[in-house]
Please model this.
Amino acid sequence: MKNTVQADSTGHRKFGIRDSLAYAAGDFGCNMSFALKGTMAIFWTQFMRMDSILYAGLLLVVQVWDAINDPLIGSIIDADKRNYKRNKFLSYIWFGSVGLIFAGALCFIPWRNAPNVAKILIYVCGYVIWDAFYTIANVPYGSLLSLISSDPADRASLSAWRSIGALAGNFIPVVVLPFLMYDDNKNIIGERVFFIALIMGILGFIGFQFMIRNTVIRVEESVLCHEAQPKFNVLKAMGNFIKNRPAVGATVAAMGMFLGLYGATTAVQVLFQSYFGKPKYYGVIQLLAVIPVLIFTPLIRKLVANFGKKEISVAGSFVSLAACAAMLVLPVTPDMKGLIIYTICQLFISLGLGIYSTVSWALMGDAIDYNEWKHGAREEGVTYSLHSFFRKLAQGVGPALSLVIMVALGYVEANEGNQTPDVALRMRYLVAALFAASALLQFVGIGLIYNLDKKSLAVMNAELEERRGAAAE
Model:
């Protein structure tokens, strides 16, 4: 007897675990490439011997282009009205995934003795090429969440499983890479990073293909028929984003997360190199920090149903703030006892962050609906890409600012894994301060700006369903 596929009221395959796994596979594909960004600063300042301040300046330049690139591509996607065999978002993702097979490795060409001008060109050109393909894949991928299902619980499930996909995509660069990229003297082996990046590009492509073949679009891209749609206006769409409080609040929270976490990445790696003296175990400790995300993922549907996405995110930010304060004042000494205290604090920071991260993408899905509710147009591409624009600014500003502070505190890239004890101690406090700033901005974004609590979300969804039903008649 053949298995029959259950259909929902609209005739599409009923939402289930297949959708969640497919969406998780998409972020696995994204993060097999994106997670390597955390290694760039160490690779370019220690292995390639690029001056830290020069690297910080170049990082800001490419990150500004990276950020501008997102709304440009988002507006192109929103304005694209052609008919695609598999859906236009999935078609863009397919094209981007092909380029990412090789693009990530271009950022890690191990030409250590190259002239400074050549190093600058390799870094800038490699990053721009990688960013172009990553944006083509990532912007429509983020927009898909609001189209796979309109049900708040389904969206929470997709967001949670996206976090699982991200964790899986982070496993190799965060956990495995430190054991491969450092020698016995705590120095980086750049050639290995290049080949690992190539392998990760292939694995990411496989993840994207699984997602494309198992994704069902259940929500119409607009409540208006194509013939009745006004001409797409990118400036008006950007203005709508600024007036979209949920989108702005979710973006501020995400910027806080990236300013703190990505800004702290280089400092944390130096902390493990020179303070704890265990750079190869950096990834293992980071892996322990994702345990809260794994714990909350199967519970997220019930938590959202009982309390609401905004409410549980605010609670999580309080937990993170308390753990950051503890990391600042507790005796995190450069021995096993201090490492244990650091790990426990990191677990509680991740507990709060894990609560927020499991619903963060669902918050943006609701923000896209809010734009339709208030302005009559969904504008998925521009809304998500502007969100991504500010996230990427934070991804550039955070590490660049962190490097500048590290140099001011005495960090010398030529010393590689052998910073002085005073510098190593300063890294210990810098890391705690960066985590604290991250948690504070998350609270401001979700707690004070984001205005879709459980009650108002229900009102919005009910009115949108009524409009869509009327438009379909």
The mean pLDDT is 83. The radius of gyration is 22 Å. The first helix runs from residue 17 to 34. The chain has 17 helices and no strands.
